[in-house]
Amino acid sequence: MDNFFITFEGGEGSGKSTQATKLYNYLIENNLKAIKTREPGGTPSAEILRDILIKGKPERWKPLSEALLMWAARYEHVKEIILPAIDSGKFVICDRFYDSTYAYQGIAHKIGIEKMQSIKKIVIGDLEPSLTFILDIDPKEGLKRTRLRKDGEDRFENFNIQFHKDLREAYLKLADMFPSRCEIISGSLSVDEISKLIIAKTKERFNIP
Ligand code: TMP
């Protein structure tokens, strides 16, 4: 472990954003230096890319264009926010990172994970989170939850159910590929149960007393 970089991953409506906030609050309340950020987004220019990526019709982008825009947003975010925070020794809690591109574009959109791995090397080199929580949930249950939101950020939710099923399998595959940093957490537990698990795993991983 050479950084305090923690990422949250999962399909639509998995509850990862709620859990990212809860972990961030825990760290701050315990006087640990931390920032919370998200992808796509996290800087003014990356937020512009977020807007065009996650709003509008599913067919708005071809999968490869979508992937390249995700990587462009990530480059801005890593250079401006993530690396400076890591270098100053802060915890960085990030709601989605490159596993999302591997899962959504690489696997569910079938671009191929190897192509995404090649681009990853060019864009962010060997930067890796130390810990990645994957919130696993039945896509039907997750999509039911997201339909209650009315923020217009629903482009990905509107891909067909097979896309969301493939996505779930994709995350399980990523957990197999990167077992030393990935923790799968059942998204069907209660918010408090999940939060307790996540805090316990974080304390263990980073030796927080
Ligand atoms: P969220 O912030 O609600 O999770 O929305 C972000 C959406 O963007 C979500 O549907 C997943 C998608 N996404 C990708 O497809 N690839 C990526 O690399 C990232 C970071 C997000």
Write structural notes for this entry.
The chain contains 8 helices and 5 strands, in the order βαβααβααβααβα. Helices cover 54% and strands 13% of the residues. It has a 5-stranded parallel sheet with strand order 2-3-1-4-5, sandwiched between helices. It starts with a strand and ends with a helix. It is globular and about 50 Å long. The chain has one domain: Rossmann fold (3-Layer(aba) Sandwich), CATH 3.40.50.300. It has 209 residues and is an alpha/beta fold. It binds thymidine-5'-phosphate. The site of thymidine-5'-phosphate has 13 residues, from helix 4.
Which helices and strands appear, and what pairs or packs with what?
Layout: E1 5-10, H1 16-29, E2 34-38, H2 44-54, H3 63-87, E3 91-95, H4 98-108, H5 113-124, E4 131-136, H6 139-146, H7 161-177, E5 182-186, H8 191-205
Parallel strand pairs: 1-3, 1-4, 2-3, 4-5
The protein binds thymidine-5'-phosphate (TMP).
The site of thymidine-5'-phosphate has 13 residues, from helix 4.
List keywords for this structure.
single chain, 209 residues, alpha/beta, binds thymidine-5'-phosphate
List the ions, cofactors and other small molecules found in this model. Answer: thymidine-5'-phosphate
The SSE order reads EHEHHEHHEHHEH
CATH superfamily: P-loop containing nucleotide triphosphate hydrolases
Considering DSSP H and I runs of 4 or more, what fraction of the residues is helical? 40-55%
- Broad shape: globular
The CATH topology label is Rossmann fold
- Distance linking N and C termini: 17 Å
Q: Can you identify the CATH class?
A: Alpha Beta
Structural class: alpha/beta
Q: Report the major sheet.
A: 5 strands, parallel
Under the CATH scheme, the architecture is 3-Layer(aba) Sandwich
Q: Low-confidence spans: pLDDT under 50, at least 5 residues?
A: none
**Strand order in the largest sheet:** 2-3-1-4-5
Give me the number of helical elements. Answer: 8
**How much strand?**
5-15%
Total separate domains:
1
Q: Average pLDDT, to the nearest integer?
A: 97
Gyration radius from CA atoms, angstroms: 16 Å
Number of strands: 5
